[in-house]
Phosphopantetheine adenylyltransferase
Amino acid sequence: MRSAVCPGSFDPVTNGHIDIIGRAAALFDHVTVGVLVNQTKSSLFTVDERIVMLEEVCAVYPNVTVQSFTGLLVDFCRDHKISAIVKGLRAVTDFDYELQMAQMNNRLTGIETLFVSTNPVYGYLSSSLVKEIAGHGGDVTGLVPDSVLKSLKERLA
Ligand code: ADP
């Protein structure tokens, strides 16, 4: 069985994330969405809230599950017999960092990272931008799932 992980903060999940998760789900037998628990980074939603939102929107993919992880992604992959990391590449600005991480992860355990080119419709989309715009009362309809839109409005009210 070929398994992959789509890692990230998902604070909150956007339609850009879902596009990548869905495409990974079409390529692999099983995909784990790995929600990074990062104590040093302040977040709008708790890890549990992010998992609930992700589980709801990923329910359409029977081979996708959601799990949090701490520590090194390569250790999480080894413990869960995951052989590939799937990341979305939005622009060249993503590339330097992602290439470095992919090479380091490969150096650590030999794990492969596959890059999926972003759907141009979501090329400019990030969770942080969504939070910033929504925080100033801007409309993020169509950029996040409707359930997330509702949670954003409630949290930022
Ligand atoms: P953010 O959206 O704040 O960059 P994440 O850490 O949650 O944050 O993103 C996890 C991964 O999801 C990123 O490394 C990237 O691979 C992918 N990703 C995020 N947004 C998009 C997007 N709009 N299109 C494609 N991939 C994306």
